[in-house]
Amino acid sequence: MKKTGINKNVIMLCECAVMVALATVLSLIKIEFPYGGSITICSMLPILIIGYRYKPLVGCLTGVVYGLIQMLFGMSNFAYATSWQAALMILFFDYLIAFGVIGLGGVFRGIKNQAVGLALGALLASVLRFLCHFLSGITVWAGFADGMPVWLYSLIYNGLYMLPKFGILIAAAIALGLLVDFRSEKLGAVKRAKK
């Protein structure tokens, strides 16, 4: 029986919901830093996979939903906002845009080697997410720099927790890319070329 467009959309929405739930659970297993940020085990990977499977736009929208959930867990961060502009910076650059850009990792789907495509996608998503938090760090969180140049404070603080997180993400993306075929409609093992 051939699937209709409606069934494909329902399947896609269900996969997105499951991946947001999985990303949320993975985000709870963490080493937390004092003023926000944490090292998690592959919490970005489910959103990256959605972007890879269903195009970057779907991945970005899924990432925004995930960002909203993360914002609910991190509502206490808004207490540090000294103005409505700072609150907007936290909203967008610590949550909505920062998590939305993860879905852009799907832009490398066209690369023949899936593991390389996922690794490049993980790298792109990681750099873009870092830039979001870096911008937030030099604006909203500048008061914590304590005499240090604000850009350096943001670079060091965000780098300390994001570099390990991104290393874990890229390694996991490569491993999964070698094992699971995310390009096929039904997930299955990657087919090896016959010698």
Blueprint (SSEs and pairs):
Layout: H1 5-27, E1 30-32, E2 38-40, H2 45-54, H3 56-73, H4 84-100, H5 114-139, H6 150-179, E3 180-181, E4 188-189
Antiparallel strand pairs: 1-2, 3-4
Secondary-structure element pattern, one letter each: HEEHHHHHEE
Number of helical segments with 4 or more residues: 6
Major pleated sheet: 2 strands, antiparallel
Radius of gyration: 18 Å
- Residue runs with pLDDT of under 50 for 5 or more positions: none
Rough outline: globular
> Portion of residues in helices?
55-70%
Structural summary, described in words:
The chain has 195 residues and is mainly α. 64% of the residues lie in helices and 5% in strands. The strands form two sheets. Strands 1-2 form a two-stranded antiparallel ribbon. Strands 3-4 form a two-stranded antiparallel ribbon. A hairpin with a 5-residue loop joins strand 1 (30-32) and strand 2. Helix 1 (5-27) packs parallel to helix 3 and helix 4 runs antiparallel to helix 5 (114-139). The chain is globular, with a radius of gyration of 18 Å. The relative contact order is 0.13. Keywords: Membrane, Transmembrane, Transmembrane helix. The chain crosses the membrane at residues 12-29, 35-52, 59-80, 86-108, 115-142, 162-182. This is Energy-coupled thiamine transporter ThiT. It holds the Pfam family Thia_YuaJ.
